[in-house]
Amino acid sequence: IQARTPGPTVIARFIGATARSTAGATLIADLAQAVGQACGIATGVDDGGAYDDAVRALLSALEAAPPDRNLVVLVDALDQLGASDRARNLAWIPHRLPPHVRVFVSTASPELANLLRRKLPASSFVTVPPLPPATSRALLHQWLAMAGRRLTAEQARNVDAVAEGSGMPLH
User: How many Å apart are CA 20 and CA 30, to the nearest integer?
Assistant: First the structure.
C-alpha cells in the first residue's frame, strides 16, 4: 500500500473577474486572508484595510505557511489592475519564498513583465504561448461545467471566434 500525501493547497485569483478583484489593496488583503485560512494563520487584515497593511499581512502569511503544507498561489492578469493602483508596483510579490510555497502570476503588460524581470531572477519566468483554439475551447467548457454552467450556441460561436484569433477565450 502506497502512502498518499495530500496535494498542494491552491489559492487562485483572477484579476478583473469581479469588481473587488481589480482593487489592489482588496485583492492583496483577500489573498492574505485566504493564505491565513488555508494555513491556520491569523493575519489580522480585513477587506477595508490599507494597502501597506495588506502587503505586510500577505508576505507574513506566505512566510509563516507551515512546512507540511505545500501552498500554491495563482494570480492571473496583473495588467487588469488600474493604472494608478499602488499594487502595480508589485512590491507585494515576494522576492523569496519558503521551499514549500510557490506564487505564480501572469500579465499581458510588457511594462509589468519588465518590472517583474528587474525584481526576480530569469529562472522565475516562463513564457506561455496562446492556447490552440481546441484546447482553449475545451478548458472554457470544462471550467463552466465545473460551475454548473454552459454557453448558448451563439455565445460558443462568439468565444470560438475570439479564441481562433488570440488563443485567449476570455478576452
Answer: 9
